[in-house]
Design goal:
This protein is an alpha+beta fold and about 400 residues long. The longest helix is centred in the last third of the chain and has 14 residues. It has four domains: about 40 residues; about 110 residues, Metallo-beta-lactamase, Chain A; about 160 residues; about 70 residues. Helix content is about 35%, strand content about 30%. The N terminus is likely disordered. It is globular and about 70 Å long. α12 crosses α14 and α14 packs parallel to α15. It binds zinc ion (2 copies). One zinc ion binds next to α6.
Length: about 400
């Protein structure tokens, strides 16, 4: 056994030394990330426990409820601890695809995770929300990919400035082309500019324009809405809405003798696309003995036996806004009946003056927004470093306001 003393830097101001960990050194090397995860859990156990306790659920009851009812299509998770850069990673259940809200420090995400990202929504370009642009770009260069970025007014110019900071004189040697499509909200319209690695990321063609009535992106099974909030600059509040949720009934699969497999994705797509219910649906798979099997149904038949349709998830992400009545009304409206509300809680209410000066919310205001919006789950984040070690107070203030205002 070997004793290893680990340190992690959470921000420039705070360096933490952690309790000694005893483990075989080989295990440590192989499972470095796992150990960092354990350290994270140890340090933030108060944060995690507090969230679970105040929401009145234990981990085990939450898990068993999920098992009994549904598997969510989206699994949002904060990229960093609540004192570090804000950002939400939202992987899809049945696709190798993900969305990103904000582009702060992305280092906790693996290349595998980042390569799943198709659309990125940047609330505003303060450094803690945008510094990860280079990390993402670095990974995507040389790949055949199209990525979509969305942001507030002047976002196109900010991305263009980032792209033009590098020398691209050798990029024509790359076989694959990276396309970056950047969209910004300008009041009642959105404007899109494309950039291609083939053209050394010079703006390509004329700006494309369409009206903006709150919808930034609409796909067959989900949409993204946005609002503009006041943070002494435009800052976007974001909401991911799943049109509806399709849960697969395991017993139904068993009764029909069907395996779990990629065909379920196709089946779900057929429902989302509202294809003709009388349309035949054939399932082909290989069993354990490598024998190919197939079964035939109509879409309606299969839907009746193995699918349960329920309201979709609604995931709202609000960060960096002053607690003005206008902002609060907009935030409540966006978050209405969300299944998850990720909302900034940077300051305690007793330091409301500081929060106002910095154009941020207090924890109490965040809790009241959650209560007025009738959200199911509140996840506070983006804590000011001044509360390091005292995060419990921030969480309790937010949760108390959430509970009392419900
Ligand atoms: Zn900001
Ligand atoms: Zn911020």
């Amino acid at each position: 056994m070997k004793v290893i003393n680990r340190c992690i830097t959470f921000d420039q101001e705070k360096i933490f030394a952690f309790p000694l960990f005893a483990c075989p050194v080989e295990l440590f090397i192989l499972q470095d990330r796992a150990i960092e995860f354990i350290i994270f859990i140890l340090v933030y156990s108060d944060y995690i426990f507090c969230l679970l306790r105040v929401s009145g659920k234990t981990l085990s009851t939450q898990q068993s409820q999920q098992r009994a009812s549904m598997k969510p299509s989206f699994h949002p998770r904060l990229i960093n601890d609540p004192f570090s850069d804000p950002g939400l990673f939202i992987p899809f259940l049945f696709e190798r695809r993900a969305l990103l809200f904000d582009l702060g420090d992305l280092s906790p995400l693996s290349a595998r995770d980042l390569l799943k990202v198709s659309h990125v929504f940047v609330t505003h370009t303060h450094m803690d929300h945008f510094i990860g642009f280079d990390t993402l770009l670095r990974l995507l260069i040389g790949r055949d990919k199209e990525i979509h970025l969305f942001g507030p007014s002047n976002f196109i110019q900010k991305v263009e400035a980032k792209l033009s900071a590098y020398n691209w004189n050798l990029i024509e040697n790359y076989e694959d082309t990276l396309f970056i499509k950047v969209t910004e909200i300008q009041g009642e319209r959105v404007v899109t500019q494309s950039f291609s690695s083939r053209d050394r990321f010079k703006p390509a063609g004329a700006l494309q324009e369409r009206p903006f009535k709150g919808g930034l992106l609409s796909e067959k099974f989900f949409s993204i809405d946005a609002i503009i909030l006041d943070h002494k600059t435009d800052c976007i509040g974001l909401c991911l809405k799943e049109n509806f949720s399709i849960n697969i009934i395991k017993e139904g699969l068993k009764e029909l003798g069907l395996p779990v497999g990629p065909w379920l994705r196709e089946f779900k797509e057929a429902i989302y696309e509202e294809r003709n219910p009388a349309q035949p649906f054939t399932i082909v798979w290989q069993d354990k003995d490598m024998v190919t099997r197939e079964k035939h149904f109509t879409l309606a038949e299969l839907k009746a036996r193995i699918a349960r349709i329920s309201p979709g998830q609604k995931i709202t992400y609000i960060t960096d806004m002053i607690g003005s009545p206008e902002n609060i009304a907009k935030a409540v409206n966006l978050a209405l009946e969300s299944s998850h509300l990720f909302i900034e809680t940077p300051f305690l209410d007793k330091e409301r003056d500081v929060a106002r000066m910095k154009y941020h919310l207090t924890a109490k205001e965040a809790g009241l927004i959650a209560a007025r919006a009738g959200v199911k789950e509140l996840i506070p984040f983006h804590f000011s470093p001044r509360y390091f070690g005292g995060e419990k107070e921030l969480i309790q203030e937010a949760m108390a306001a959430f509970q009392s205002g419900r």
